[in-house]
Amino acid sequence: MDSSSQLHRRRRLLYLARHGRTALNASGVLRGRLDPDLDAVGRQEARRLGDALASSGITTVVSSPLSRAVQTAEAIASPLGITVRVDPRLVDRDYGRWAGSSIEEIEAEWGSVDDAPGVEPATEVRARGLEVLEELRREDRATCVVVSHDALNRAVLCALEPSLCEPDRVAQPTGCANVLTWAGGSWTVLAAGLLPGGATLGLAETAARMRRWERD
């Protein structure tokens, strides 16, 4: 088997995370390219996410350039001695002049966020997210964390797993992680919207199980 075939078949484990909470998240408005820091709750969510993934064998942490994502990524990477890589393609969806507005306001005027003028097309958000995943898959790195935003995460998850239905219906609470694996030539979404310590989750337990799967 040649090297390209081996690379195609090699297993990959990827945690696609959403950043912790900010004041804008708490207020229920669209964030987009606005750049607030994590609030106190968000910093706690980031620490919990880092704790849950600490024993997952992480080799790479990649983040959106926005502060809320970088701060979450640092909480995961710093205890492991890993330097966060920033990738501008992971930035939140561009809502243009609608950033800072509520979804209800936009829907009342335009019917949907997608139809509001100046909003980045959902197809472009999905394409840049999938492009990052494809590049990470081609690198010789078995376990990665990608920290991004709800709009991008949902778009990617639904592209990889159509059974998740519409992107807006995929739960992506702040400080959550989604578990993706690459094996046999395709990505599989094993779990979505997991929270550290959640009753149905056990992100730490899921991470440990995935680590054992990777060694097998």
Structural write-up:
The protein has about 220 residues and is an alpha/beta fold. Helix content is about 40%, strand content about 15%. The chain has 8 helices and 6 strands; from the N terminus they run αβααβαβααβαββα. The chain has helices at about 5-10, 25, 40-55, 65-75, 105-110, 120-140, 150-160, 205-215, and strands spanning about 10-20, 60-65, 85, 145-150, 175-185, 185-195. The protein has a 6-stranded mixed β-sheet, with helices on both faces. α4 (about 65-75) links the parallel β2 and β3. The longest helix is centred in the middle third of the chain and has 17 residues, at about 120-140.
CATH C-level class: Alpha Beta
Number of strands: 6
If strands are numbered along the chain, what order do they take across the biggest sheet? 3-2-4-1-5-6
Total helical segments: 8
Query: What is the domain total for the residues?
Result: 1
Uncertain regions: pLDDT < 50 for 5+ in a row? 1-8, 212-216
First-residue to last-residue Cα separation? 20 Å
The best one-word shape is globular
Characteristic terms for this protein:
about 220 residues, alpha/beta, Rossmann fold, six-stranded mixed beta sheet, disordered N terminus, disordered C terminus
Gist of the model:
By secondary structure, the protein is an alpha/beta fold.
